[in-house]
Here is the input.
Amino acid sequence: MGITAYINKKIAEGERNSIGVSIILITVGSMIASITAALAIDGEVIYLP
Here is the structure.
């Protein structure tokens, strides 16, 4: 039972950490999109359809 409890504990920690990592990745992605959009408005970045 000790091994099973340990594995379940590690899985729970991983789930908590994955939510934090997901939030960070979404934030960074939004920042990159905002910067790209701002540069596109200035005409420095050309979007190809």
In short: The chain has one helix and no strands. The chain has a mean pLDDT of 78. The two ends are 57 Å apart (CA to CA). Residues 40 and 47 are 7 Å apart (CA to CA).
